[in-house]
Amino acid sequence: MPNIKVFSGSSHPDFAAKVVDRLGIDLGRVVTKKFSNLETCVEIGESVRGEDVYIVQSGCGEINDNLMELLIMINACKIASAARVTAVVPCFPYARQDKKDKSRAPVSAKLVANMLTAAGMDHIITMDLHASQIQGFFDLPVDNLYAEPAVLKWIKENISEWKTSIIVSPDAGGAKRVTSIADSLKVDFALIHKERKKANEVSDMVLVGNVTDRVAILVDDMADTCGTIVKAADKLKEAGATKVYAILTHGIFSGPAIARINGACFEAVVATNTIPQDEHMIQCDKIRCIDVAMIFAEALRRTHNGESVSYLFANVPY
Amino acid sequence: MVEIQESVRSRTVYILQTGSKDVNNSIMELLVMAYACKTSSARNIIGVIPYLPYSKQSKMRKRGCIVSKLLAKMMCKAGLTHIITMDLHQKEIQGFFDCPVDNLRASPFLLNYIVEQIPDYRNSVIVAKDPASCKRATSYAERLRVGIAVIHGEAKTRFDDDYEDADEDGDDGRTSPPPLPARQQGRLHSSVSMSSFMERSEPGAEPGPVTAAAAAAAALRRGRPRLRSAASVCFGEVDPSRIMSVGVTGVPMQAAKEKPPISVVGDVGGRIAIMVDDMIDDVRSFVAAAEMLKERGAYKIYVMATHGLLSADAPRLIEESAIDEVVVTNTVPHDVQKIHCHKIKTVDVSILLSEAIRRLHNKESLSYLFRNITMED
Asked: Where is the Ribose-phosphate pyrophosphokinase N-terminal domain positioned along the sequence (chain A) (predicted)?
């Protein structure tokens, strides 16, 4: 493909490699390093003048370093006369801080959006934003891809009892996402609501709906410390579910997450590779991975060719 | 035409305007007033907009506009330096504005109404009219210490929040076949088979044995064994069967999503059902939900909402429905509707707005006004 350059940040090189592999091009040469005072330094190793530049960087690992690196890479390409700079951010950082839910809470997602725009970004491609309203935080095009078709495919291929299963939301906020999946599979849904006193801390859980003698599939957009989904799984078992699966788009799995999953009653915990899962999969047998790099490759290719991307919103590319 | 008839130079100006029936005119009037104050050297221009219009259109569906964002931009551009509003449809809308937004909540007033006016409210269940309003329902349930139930599946309404319309972009001639995975194959001859395969798997094609076979064959031609080995190399000792790559095999076209028939998740039998939402505009979904709740044994049905728009023939529908009472606040004028329907009750929230303005003007903290608000509300 002419006039296209894809660069990878240091957060998820594997993902970038898969994307360019699919596109049939080479990854652009870029060196990212740190000065001794820990400032990030980026050297773009090839000409980008007049090119359509894509920078692949996910919000994972050292989030702040990776965000800074992305900003610097965007700016480096922009001032080197790139025709267009598109950020490909499989997992958008700070997406959970998208509203002022208590006094003086920052809307950091908006801040990140402003920073990316200020750095010179022209377009962003991401997946399953925590709230789709984040699209409105930007003044430029945002392509928010859905992992849902891939999730449906995984359920149909890997859970033999899916026709009698029940889709469960671990909190009230995810009810909409869950009903969308339940409707596609033509199965029932249930939800767990809780009284949460602080962030990342759960207390009383109440199950609404009937899961007795059924396979329960917990679905959420992200799981970090996994406290919520592990307690939800216990609750479901207690209520008579035969097996419990968890499916997440962004499996952050930080802190005690892996130990918690290892000790919980999950049949499997499924996450996409918007965040690197290799390490997690080695540490935990229960984690399964859905590779969504192809969806991004296809979105990137269509964007570059000026074709419609809407096809991807309903379908995983073949 | 707007004329500001007294001096505003170096003053703090509060403009009170709500999204009423004639919504576009009220927006335009607000913008013109704000800009008039700005050009007349007002120091601060604070918009008090109890009901922010267009807030349902806060996310992108297909190629749609995020109108709420556009409105936010327009208001900031017109010179508003601060917004006071109430019960935004989505709290994320706060992030659309480039100026501070104070999103007040009417829920303490509505909760107070429940406690004082509904005898036996302890035997009630809070009902979310659709899965999207679950969060709000739990916040009420938590504070009243009662259970919740969720209604799902309904007749389509005007403001349906789904992205489910059929799409006809598949064959507008702007879809080129994807290239081969690089470096894995001689690209020349197999590009032909690739493109023919792509044609078959385009939208509208039936996933049949032919496609499946073609997919398998194409996968083989694309050098799947090497792809696998590459995967297992980068995944170390992880069993490749634990990774599902969405690129390798086909996914059948999804049928257009259809909502299932209306049903209730959770128990409402022998209870008072209280439906809570942020606004009531088109009441048909509420009426359908109320019938469902009656059928399931709820003996009294209340509807609570902050913004009572009650447009079109809402009063008549409520009057004829199974709903016992509709409780709304006075963020939007609805006196005409009340004449037509005696079931509509109003809770006055003006004291909250005036207290917010007073505190803001005296540079005091507003957090006192949020003391009984949970994270979900």
From this structure: 4-120
DSSP H helices, chain A, are 13-23, 63-79, 108-119, 148-158, 175-185, 227-238, 257-263, 278-283, 293-304, 310-314
Radius of gyration of chain A (CA): 20
Is the minimum CB–CB distance between B165 and chain A shorter than 8 Å? no
Token pair for residue B244?
């599902």
In a domain, A318, yes or no: no
Q: Are residues B92 and B124 in the same domain?
A: no
DSSP state of B92: G
Mutation target among A115, A179, A196, A197 for the B interface, most CBs of B within 10 A? A179
> Looking at residue B36, which CATH number applies to its domain?
3.40.50.2020
Alpha-carbon gap, residue A47 to A28, rounded angstroms: 9
Number of separate domains in chain B:
2
Kindly indicate the confidence band of residue A314, based on its pLDDT and cuts at 50, 70 and 90: low
- Closest residue of chain A to B197, computed from CA coordinates: A318
Same-domain pairing of B155 and B285: yes
Chain B residues closer than 8 Å to A22 by CB: 178-179, 181-182, 247
Closest residue on chain B to A103 (Cα): B367
Residue A50 CB-density burial (10 A; 0-12 exposed, 13-18 middle, 19+ buried): exposed
Q: Which of residues 178-197 of A touch B (CB under 8 A)?
A: 178-180, 183-184, 186, 188-191, 193, 195-196
Instruction: Please check whether residue B192 lies inside any domain of the structure.
Output: no
Tell me the count of A-B CB pairs closer than 8 A. 232
Q: What is the pLDDT of residues B311-334, one digit of tens each?
A: 888 889 998 888 999 999 999 998
What integer is the mean pLDDT of B295-324? 89
> Model's pTM, two decimal places?
0.82
Q: Please give the distance of CA A192 from its chain centroid, rounded to a whole number.
A: 22
* A8 and A142 in a common domain: yes
Q: Assess whether pLDDT exceeds 80 at residue B169.
A: no
Complex ipTM more than 0.90, yes or no: no
> Is B268 domain-assigned?
yes
Do B96 and B137 belong together in one domain? no
Q: What is the pLDDT of residues A274-293, one digit of tens each?
A: 999 999 999 999 999 999 99
* Domain assignment of residue A185, given as a range: 148-290
B172 inside 8 A of chain A by CB: yes
Is the CB of B22 inside 8 Å of chain A's CB atoms?
A: no
Which chain A residues touch B182 with a CB distance below 8 Å? 20-26
The number of domains in chain A is 2
Domain that holds residue B139: 106-159+262-348
